[in-house]
Predict the structure.
Amino acid sequence: MLNDNPKKPKKRVDYFHPTRGQLFWRTQRECWRRMVTPFLMYLFMSLLLLSAQVIPYAWLSVPLGVVCILGGAAYNAHLCYQYGKLHFGELVAGENARRREAEGIDVGIDHRVEREYSAWKGFYIGFLIGVPVILFGCLAGAFFDMLNASGGENVWGLGQLFGAYSALALVMFTTWAIMPVLWLRNYVPAMAGLSLYWSLVMIVLPIVVSGVFYIVGAYSERRARNAEADRERRLEEARERAKNEVRVQTEEQRKKTLQSKKKK
């Protein structure tokens, strides 16, 4: 029997012509999606950094910790470099699609405008990597420091709990941000009471690294595309010259043939 209630075809989503609101939320989703892998790389290096702190010698554990932090930044740089190249390619595709659409050619609705390159996106991705630092750093700075000031007395109750767990979350998930503060507190007597708020300064690292290498990746992709276009242009010119040379050679051969016939 024929199906009396056939399935309705799914309505295709227009990604090429978003409204302001759609573009905003889709851009947020794209940037949050891109921050996940760099954050996991920082987390992985943070675990190595935390392991290195078991070494009882500061002259060894601190340099190893710095190497781990720089390793996370290196992963961050590589990933954002690739994001910049990818997004610049999307920008070129979008410009071509808009140009064809202006000429009256149907280009479809599948191009995702939120994935196009913009210089600020790299810095924003870096900021999103630092969101856990902002969250836990503010809580630890507000409550953990107050816990220390009270000498550990139970004067804050829930505040102490927030402070302790926030400091623990900083150590477990964003060791790269809190460890420089702990080094200063532990190994520099004059800074023994340094506030955990100073861990917020470390979010500058992913912001700068992500933003700079995102832009560098885009410029690298642009240079590669320009070089490819230049190579294609030179090949086309060479083909044209080859055609002209063949045409001239043919004319010369025809004249020689006519001259030889006249001699005969």
